[in-house]
Each structure stands twice: as structure tokens, then as C-alpha cells.
Please model this.
Amino acid sequence: MKSNSDFVQRQFKFHPDELSLKPLKAQVGGHVYMKILNDQYVCKPLNERELQFYQNIPKNLADHVPAFQGTLVENEDSSGNRGASSSNGPIREETSSSRGSSREYLVLENLTKDYKKPCVLDLKMGTRMYGDFATDSKRKSQRKKSTKSTSAKLGVRFCGSQRFSVSNNSFEMFDKYVGRNADETELRKLLEQFFTHGCSLRKDVINNVLGEICRMKKSLLDLEEYRFYSSSILIIYEGLLKEEKSDSQHFSDAENSMDCENFKMEAFGSGSLESTKYRKDEVSSCTVTMKMIDFANISFPSVDSEQFRHEGPDRGFLMGLDNLYEILESLL
Model:
């Protein structure tokens, strides 16, 4: 699949003073800091392996990852003037010099763009967190993290969340360090807390997520040789209840979406995920986004040598989906 950089160039027609790259304050996991481009797109520091993945996304996976828009280079000269260029040509006149600096970004779909109060959950998937080319020290440290957390046993680990509290009119945050020390019981409590909103469990949201897990698993089962090491799934639902949306003056624009200042910064179950508790009739009652993210350590056929060739689908990731499904189902 080719990158859609033409779309980026066609859309980014702004005056030199209108380039706006702001911190992504809704980021709940990860170790690289992302930005928002003109309130429309997410800019993530460019990683070559991740770029190759986005440029060659298999068709059956396209609906499960953020839409890739291209790349962006931000330039800054010695006087602090900034410029930018897309992967397919200049967006506007560049102002970089030999003494200046430049930063490259992947430009991705902003998954929270249509949410007023996005409740966001980052779950690290799989039992192995290091890539094929990781150093011995990296492999050792990542194995230790997996063993101490729920990754090794369940193939899923809490990696951060934000949930809009109706009573406090603010976002409640948990970082990735909470998940590193959480056992299976604590993981279940963290998930229950995330899906509890407005003094009740959002069963409609959970049912929607269960449906998304079924669809994602079906796609991954047909994906040979791919390994999504250290990748996550991001789950998003609306934290502004329907009755509150009619009283929009209660929330200022500054609190909406990405710019809210309240943000602080190997078993393999291949059986069916269908369940009597999964009610398909409830799925359409709310909007939920669930996508796979973070592919810096991915292994896939088009870029890997024979030395690192893998057989079959990613059983660690699939195991995580199975266990996540079972935990969420038990909450209903």
C-alpha cells in the first residue's frame, strides 16, 4: 500500500505563520513525545521501520491502524524560524540553515479528533516487547518487565489511561508504571475503572470493544509472518454523556479534545470469541475507536531477512486479545 503523502501536501496549505505543532497532551502511553499538527493530525517522531510498515500495510489490516497521511520535516534555523516540508514536496518555504536543526515525523490520523472528552486506554499487547534487532541488554530488560507484569502470562498489559470524571469535571490519569506492577487482579480493576463512567459501567462501550476484538483477531489470524512486538491497542470512547452535550457551555473549548489543560503529562487461544454476554444489539448505541499503534519493533516479510523470518500469525498478540476479551466479558 502506498503512502498517501499527496493528501498531506494537498491539505497543508497554510501561511508560514500558520504552522502549528503543539504537544499531544492526550498521550497516555509510549516513550516518544508526539505532537498535533494544526489541530488535525498526530505527528510522531519518525522511525524508519515504522515508516516502512505504514507504507506497506496489508489490506486486511488497514482498518485496524490509524490512517497514514505521509511524513513531515520540521526545520528550525539558528534564529528560531520554523519551516516544514512533506514527503512529497514542500508544504511551504523552508527556513532551515546549515546551523539549524530538523525533526522528521510520521503524520497520522488524529483518533480523538471527533471526541469532546476522549477517554483513552493504551494496552501493550503480546508476550515479547523487543524487536528482532534488539541488543542483549534490551532483551534482558524487556523480558524482566514482561515477567513482572501481566505481559508474560496474559499477553496484555496496562500502559496508561485517561478517563473523564463527570463528578470532578476533569480527566483522571494513570501512567504506564501502574501497569508494570499490576497483577491479573489489578489489571481487571484498572479496566473496570476505565469503563466505569458516570457512576455506572459502560456496558455499551464494552460490547462495542468486544466486537472490535473479534474483527481484529480475524484479521490477524490471516496475517502470516508478522510480529507486532511492543505494539499496543488504543481504545477510545466519549466521556461527555449525551445529556451533558446539550449543555455545552458547561465545558470551555480549552478543555476539549487534545488541548485540555487538565491532562497531565505463550499459550495461544484460537477458539471463537463469540459469547452469550456479547450483545451485538448494544454495539451501535455508542461510538468506540479501537486501533493498533506503535510499530517501531515490528517484524514483517517485506523488510526482514531470512534470518528473522517468522511462521504463522502473531500468537502472543492473539493471546492478549483472547485474554482481554475474557476479562471484559467477565465485567458484564
Residues 60 and 170 are 38 Å apart (CA to CA). Residues 1-16, 88-99, 246-272 have pLDDT under 50 and may be disordered. Residues 203-221 form the longest helix (19 residues).
